[in-house]
Structure formats: structure tokens, C-alpha cells
Design brief:
alpha/beta; single chain; 8-stranded parallel β-sheet; two-stranded antiparallel ribbon; 12 strands; 42% helix; TIM Barrel; 15 helices
């Protein structure tokens, strides 16, 4: 086993271990992938301010996200098809997050179901909801999340229309995977993944199959999911869904100041500045570039979190120092999961925490509460001046 010191090391192992269609699913964006690349690259434009001769004893990364104590303000983002990156992947990721002390968010489009994840964990996790045309199914899905003890509902707002993701289309991405000559040859070289997948509890969408009338096989399932994302979703719908949930609610997919203000009116507990990891509107600004504008727009009236592009503890540090109260990693934990299972997710969290803690110290900060824009060198036109 090679020495693993950063997230990219996990990515390289992951790439060798899992079939191409699932690597491409994680490591891609929509259209030209400009926004996908910018999400990562734009962090480099922010520099850190080094401070010396500051007492660094007793430093830690503990904090809170929406009132929940966390080992560091980094949650595992909802990622679809996680159970095809590694057998029972959602369970492995949830257990790793629980042991580490950070939130895990289960996707609507997970392979392992809400109930299956709840049966293998001991603490409440968060549940991410896609707004569906079939409102009866959506209400039952929310009730199942309540019954499983999920403490927080994360409503994704930026998937009313599916962005075109060329790699997924070319690979014929599906759950379970379609066996084409190209896919068969690729999977034959990933024998360790294949052997592990034989023992998986399931290989289709666990939150849907068996819970929607008429859905019992992958053919009807594919048609159903293609038709179900609701293009009519508006803020009245969001408010109605918020009123149906008696726990914490987070709105995911905010990338505009006006939408951030509208999020205040529906009673959400937090918003996530996010462009779906560059998988929806290609050509949109990166999440880190939009974060300052959105923070300026809503101030401290609502808790602001951020995802899309985080690959290191320094990325987390920059987002927090700009003013975010929480961050999310998706691809970074998937790299670890695909590379080493639950141990790999733990390794990804350890890497990010170590980088965060060390960089905080070198910037003269001992706690998350001490972080501010004072430790950053931000270009004067970082968010852009547009006509």
C-alpha cells in the first residue's frame, strides 16, 4: 500500500480500483466542465496570511453546524450511487462519519436505503431530498426519513432539469450497471471491486425500488427517474416542504444573492452555496467565488455553508475564513470510499482535519471561532465585476 498523504493519493487508488463509469460519474461535470474545473482551481487565487510567535497550544477544529457539535465543520455531502463505488458504500461512509464526529448526508438516489443505513448506524444522519413530481412518494419518503430518526432535511433545489453530463451518457451509467462489451471488459480488470460487489446488500436505488407503485425492475426505474424531477418547483413548494418537516432544514444549490435572500423567507436553518459540483449549469461561477457575495447579501440572518470543489483542509480553511459556518465534501470522501472502503473515508477525513489544523496554526489561529478574513489575502476582484 503506498503512503497516503493527501486526497489526490486516494483519488489515484480509486481510479485504479473502480470501473470507469463510476470513476467518471464522480470525476466529471456537465458540458465543457468549465465550472467543474473552476470549483477546484479558484481556491488557489486565495492566499493565506502567515503569522508567527503565536501560542498554538490547545488548538482544535471542533465546532457546530446548525447547532450540532462536530469534530470539524465538514459534512459528507449527499452523493448518488455511492453504493456502487464500494459495496454498501452509504453504510460504510455513514459509519465512518459517525465515528469521526461529522454529519453524513444520505442521497435520495442512494443504493442503500434509508432503513438499511439506519440499521447499521447509531446516531441520526441527514437526508437529502429531491423534489419529485410524485408528491405522494415524496411525502412517504420524508416520513421514512423521520421514522429512521434523520435529524436534518437537505432540500436540493438545483436539479429541476438534469444537466447534460457527456461522460455519463457515453458510459451508459445505470444502477445496476448495464453490461455492454466495453463495460464488461473494463469491469473484468476491476476484479477486487467485482468480488466485493457480489456481497452487496443491493445494487439498485434502495429508496425507490419497492416503494413506488409499478417500479420493480431497472427498466421501469430508469424511465421513472428520468420523468420525476419536478421542473415546476418554486419557492411556494419549498416553503410547503419546509412546513412538512419538523426538524432542521438546509437548502442546497444556492448560487445567487437573490436566491439566498429568498431562502430566508421559507424558514430554512441554513443554505449551501453550491453548483452541484459543476454537474448542472456549466459556465456558472464557482461556489467559492460566489460565497462572499452571498454572505454579504444575507449577513448572519441564516447559517451559510458551502460545497463544490473542496479537496483539502486548506480549502475548508479558506471557506470558513470567508465566513461559511460549514463545508461539505463529496468527491473527496468518494475517492477514499472507492479506494479503501470505510477505512478510506476515515482516511479522507483525517487528511482534511490534519491540513485544516496545521494551516490554522500557521495562520495564528487555535480554534474555528478565531478564523476570519484577516488570515486571507483575497484578490480585490475575486468575485468578479460583471456588466
Amino acid at each position: 500500500m503506498p503512503v497516503i498523504t493527501n486526497i489526490d493519493d486516494l483519488k489515484q487508488i480509486y481510479r485504479r480500483r473502480v470501473p470507469k463509469m463510476f470513476f467518471d460519474y464522480a470525476e466529471s461535470g456537465s458540458w465543457s466542465e468549465q465550472t467543474f474545473r473552476d470549483n477546484v482551481n479558484d481556491f488557489a487565487d486565495i492566499r493565506l496570511r502567515q503569522r508567527v510567535a503565536v501560542d498554538m497550544s490547545g488548538r482544535h477544529t471542533r465546532s457546530q453546524m446548525i447547532g450540532q457539535n462536530v469534530a470539524m465543520p465538514v459534512a459528507l455531502a449527499p452523493v448518488g450511487l455511492t453504493g456502487l463505488q464500494s459495496a454498501d458504500g452509504e453504510i460504510k461512509a455513514a459509519r465512518a462519519a459517525e465515528a469521526f464526529g461529522v454529519p453524513f448526508t444520505l442521497s435520495t438516489m442512494s443504493i442503500c436505503s434509508i432503513e438499511e443505513v439506519a440499521a447499521k448506524t447509531t446516531k441520526p444522519f441527514w437526508f437529502q431530498l429531491y423534489v419529485m413530481r410524485d408528491r405522494d412518494f415524496m411525502r412517504r419518503l420524508m416520513q421514512r426519513a423521520k421514522d429512521a430518526g434523520c435529524s436534518t432535511l437537505v432540500i436540493t433545489l438545483d436539479l429541476q432539469v438534469l444537466g447534460q453530463r457527456h461522460k455519463d451518457l457515453k458510459n451508459g451509467l445505470s444502477a445496476p450497471p448495464k453490461i455492454t462489451p466495453a463495460n464488461f471488459l473494463d469491469m473484468a480488470t476491476k476484479w477486487a471491486w467485482g468480488i466485493e460487489m457480489l456481497s452487496a446488500q443491493r445494487r439498485n436505488f434502495g429508496n425507490i425500488v419497492g416503494h413506488v407503485k409499478g417500479i420493480s425492475d431497472t427498466t421501469s426505474l430508469s424511465a421513472w427517474t428520468a420523468e420525476q424531477f419536478d421542473p415546476k418547483l418554486d419557492w411556494n413548494d419549498v416553503k410547503e416542504i419546509r412546513e412538512m418537516w419538523d426538524g432542521k432544514v438546509i437548502l442546497k444549490g444556492i448560487l445567487d444573492e437573490e436566491d439566498a435572500k429568498l431562502g430566508l423567507n421559507v424558514g430554512a436553518d441554513a443554505i449551501i452555496v453550491s453548483n452541484h459540483g459543476g454537474r448542472q449549469l456549466d459556465g456558472a461561477q464557482s461556489a467559492i467565488r460566489m460565497l462572499p457575495k452571498i454572505l454579504d447579501a444575507v449577513g448572519d440572518k441564516i447559517e451559510v455553508h458551502m460545497d463544490s470543489g473542496i479537496r483539502s483542509g486548506q480549502d475548508v480553511l479558506k471557506a470558513l475564513a470567508l465566513g461559511a459556518k460549514g463545508t461539505y465534501i463529496g468527491r473527496s470522501f468518494v475517492y477514499g470510499l472507492g479506494a479503501m472502503g470505510q477505512q478510506g473515508v476515515t482516511k479522507a477525513l483525517e487528511i482534511i482535519q490534519k491540513e485544516l489544523e496545521t494551516s490554522m496554526a500557521l495562520c495564528g489561529c487555535r480554534t474555528i471561532e478565531e478564523l476570519s478574513r484577516d488570515i486571507l489575502r483575497v484578490p480585490s476582484d475575486f468575485s468578479g465585476t460583471w456588466a
